[in-house]
Specification:
The chain is α/β, with parallel strands linked by helices and 208 residues long. The protein contains 5 helices and 11 strands. The protein has helices at 35-41, 73-94, 108-119, 162-174, 192-204; strands spanning 8-11, 20-24, 46-50, 54-56, 59-61, 65-67, 70-71, 101-106, 126-130, 148-154, 178-184. The strands form 3 sheets. Strands 1-3-2-8-9-10-11 form a 7-stranded mixed sheet, sandwiched between helices. The chain has a two-stranded antiparallel sheet with strand order 4-5. Strand 10, helix 4 (162-174) and strand 11 form a beta-alpha-beta unit. Helix 2 crosses helix 3.
Length: 208
């Protein structure tokens, strides 16, 4: 069996046809943070929730940054590959199809999910990205006709501008992905509006 080298929680789906939600926490979170959100979004779904391996002043993250909003791109690429390999290994270990994975990422977790969909679509082709930024721009741009994602960002977010959000949506659309963009009235916090948008999106793609 492949080695699963992330601290993580796995909960199998109650319904064998339900998706597996990949729960990716924000800076300072852990593998427990988004379990309750996952249960709200899709009660019958499975849950795979890893803890980020990078520590920033003791706070877990999924990749390093040089400053607020300035990513260490080489580390991001390395950590993206590491996470993608973990997802495929977890699918083999726990006996689910990796194509059933749908990321639910917040902030740093949303950014690593976006990077994974761009760089490793063999491991992840769907996601709910809450307060995401452009993680990197691959050259060449991948072709992602199977990728579906929801972007849910705040209109008054001090960390992620309106232009940054539009850039992220365009990046994925240019790659051929199916992108739904929902604006929330708040800032960088997770809101009930995000939850409602995520539930509606999951229902729309036939997974909830």
């Amino acid at each position: 069996m492949p080695d699963l080298d992330f601290v993580h929680v796995y909960e199998p789906p109650a319904d064998p046809n339900a998706p597996i939600l990949l729960l990716l926490h924000g800076t300072g979170g852990n593998e427990q943070d988004l379990l309750s959100l996952g249960e709200i979004l899709a009660p019958d779904a499975g849950m795979l929730s890893p803890r980020g391996k990078v520590l920033e002043r003791g706070a877990p993250r999924f990749f390093r940054r040089l400053a607020e909003g300035v990513f260490d791109i080489e580390d991001l690429k390395f950590r993206t590959g590491e996470l993608a390999d973990f997802l495929l290994a977890a699918a083999a270990r726990y006996g689910f199809d990796a194509a059933r994975l749908i990321a639910v990422g917040f902030s740093n977790g949303a950014n690593i999910a976006a990077s994974t969909m761009l760089l490793r679509p063999d491991a992840l082709t769907g996601g709910i990205l809450i307060r995401a930024m452009v993680p990197l721009v691959p050259d060449p741009l991948p072709t992602l006709p199977r990728t579906r994602l929801l972007l849910s960002n705040g209109r008054t977010d001090p960390l992620v501008s309106l232009d940054e959000t539009e850039r992220l949506a365009k990046l994925f659309r240019d790659a051929g992905a199916d992108v739904t963009l929902k604006w929330q009235p708040g800032g960088h916090e997770l809101t009930q509006g995000d939850v409602s948008a995520a539930r509606q999106w999951l229902t729309g793609i036939g997974t909830a």
